[in-house]
Amino acid sequence: MRFFSRKLIKPQDLNAHGTLFGGSVLAWIDEEAAIYVICQLGKSNIATKFMSEIDFVSSAELGDIIEIGMETVNFGKSSITVKCEVRHKFTKATIIRIEKIVFVHLDEEGRPTPHNINKPVN
Q1: Torsional sign, CA 116, 81, 47, 12
Q2: CA triple 79-84-87, angle to 5 deg
Q3: Do the bridges between strand 54-56 and strand 65-75 make them parallel or antiparallel, or are there none, so unpaired?
């Protein structure tokens, strides 16, 4: 697993309990995963198709720094599957784990189309 980006937890990222809001971190994960897949395929016409169970293991608090990691799991004909882990930068404690995020390569009409890639481009 490679960790590419970091986020500083700010007041606007908190829920009513004063900890990291799940919706914020899921938006960051979807964006980071999309960037990762675009770099893997060398193509930007992709869409998120599926996200498996989201395992909220622990949380983060105001001022914490988290990092988002991605790893390629599988290349399909028109899809690519990655897994993700979000962890605390310094303690390395896992915050969220998602085993499968599937992206699909799309043609100009938005239909799945083969990407013709079987190993990472970048």
Answers
A1: negative
A2: 170
A3: unpaired
